[in-house]
Design a protein that fits this description.
single chain; alpha/beta; 8-stranded mixed β-sheet; 3-stranded antiparallel β-sheet; 12 helices; 15 strands
């Protein structure tokens, strides 16, 4: 399944808009996962992208976001601390729960791993947690700026350099770290746990993985990331971690359908997502899709437009109808491609239109199909196949006069 990325945002714990990305599989969404990135990193780190990509191949949607003051999110990083990060993470879970479905898998990288362990108990729907290079003690993060600790204690804050970028660390950040006990959170996890860690990790030592693993109850698993560095900069290392997580998670989070909105048999439900001006969720059976408008008219361009869906219905019905005919007549058609174009034109400009259209005046909808057939058959057979396209049920529906009945839900 290919990835359908959607740019989103939601309000963080400190009131800032947090930048988020939801990667969805092109088929049914079997479950959702929430990813928390490392200290001062962003949602677009290689490891995060690889993990999201691998999970979508398993039918799992992945929401990753930037914590307050980082990446594309608003707010002031200096005003944050580990507690506010946890609150951001809870807000992300609430957002996913409200707009799509609650996350069943929590994934955290480095300090993000400690964060998902700390909030896991407040996400009851989550059945599995995976950590990558996570510290067993959140105070471990101060090793990144150990040379500045005295200045922070004395002056209340200091500007530190982390990965070549300047960040202001305040004393309240240090004080807040001491208030959290990750070991205690792990001990009451009551969820499947996967601990991934590299033995040669120079940022968060392997002993942290041992402490987390020892504190956890079964089911729990440990996987060595061998020679990988802390940030999984080598794409092969990130891909390996992603594949391990997706294979392991399948046992714990896809054994049942997520609690999605019920869709009556024979119906398609479309509802607003509350994101942007036009974005809507389309529910058809167990399939989940997004409808939207292009950015040029005020949408996010996060999904096909309503007319795109209409053209897709005509095109897919045409392909299926022609395939059924070819198989029935044992015609060796190797491939069928239908390109559908939609325009609104003046009836008087329509060369293919009959008198009934010309009498209407004004503009009419014109759908044009361009059909490509691959195979070894005669021109006569080709013409018969093209003619069959006009027998597609959606074609007939569009050309016929349909009845649309609108009712208030309260009148059911």
């Amino acid at each position: 399944m290919a990835v359908r990325p959607i740019k989103l945002s939601f309000e963080g714990a400190l009131g800032a808009q947090l930048s988020a990305r939801l990667d969805l599989p092109t088929g049914p969404v079997r479950a959702y996962a929430l990813f928390a990135h490392c200290f001062t990193c962003s949602k677009d780190l290689t490891a995060a992208r690889k993990i999201a990509q691998s999970l979508t191949m398993q039918g799992i949607g992945v929401l990753r976001f930037d914590f307050t003051g980082l990446g594309g999110s608003g707010g002031d990083f200096a005003s944050t601390n580990f507690t506010s990060n946890l609150d951001d993470l809870k807000r992300a879970a609430d957002f996913l729960r409200h707009e799509f479905a609650a996350p069943r898998l929590l994934i955290g990288h480095s300090l993000g791993g400690a964060a998902v362990l700390a909030v896991a108990d407040s996400v009851p729907e989550a059945t599995a947690v995976a950590t990558i290079g996570a510290p067993a003690d959140v105070e471990h993060v101060t090793h990144n700026f150990a040379g500045y600790l005295e200045d922070i204690e004395r002056n209340g804050q200091a500007e530190v350099s982390l990965s070549g970028r300047p960040f202001v660390i305040k004393k309240h950040f240090i004080d807040d770290l001491r208030a959290h006990d990750i070991g205690k959170s792990v001990g009451k996890l009551h969820k499947a746990l996967l601990v991934l860690h590299a033995p040669m990790d120079q940022t968060v030592g392997i002993e942290n993985a041992a402490r987390i693993f020892d504190a956890a109850k079964h089911p729990k698993s440990f996987v060595s990331l061998d020679s990988a560095d802390h940030l999984l900069r080598d794409p092969d290392d990130a891909t390996y971690a992603a594949e391990v997580i997706s294979a392991w998670a399948r046992r714990y989070i896809t054994d049942e359908e997520p609690a999605n909105e019920e869709v009556p048999d024979g119906a398609v439900v479309v509802r607003e997502t509350g994101l942007g001006k036009f974005q809507a969720m389309v529910l058809a059976g167990h399939h989940r899709m997004l409808a939207d408008e292009p950015e040029g008219v005020g949408g996010f361009d996060s999904g096909p437009s309503p007319y795109d869906f209409l053209a897709a219905a005509l095109g897919s019905c045409t392909v299926m109808t022609m395939r059924m005919y070819a198989d029935q007549k044992q015609i060796p058609v190797d491939g069928i491609r239908v390109e559908v174009r939609h325009d609104k034109i003046h009836a008087t400009d329509c060369m293919e239109c009959g008198a009934e259209f010309e009498q209407k005046g004004g503009k009419i909808d014109r759908f044009e199909r361009i059909i490509t057939l691959h195979g070894d058959f005669t021109e006569e057979i080709r013409e018969k196949l093209i003619a069959i396209a006009n027998k597609c049920p959606v074609h007939r529906t569009l050309e016929a006069k349909s009845l649309i009945v609108t009712r208030d839900e309260r009148d059911r």
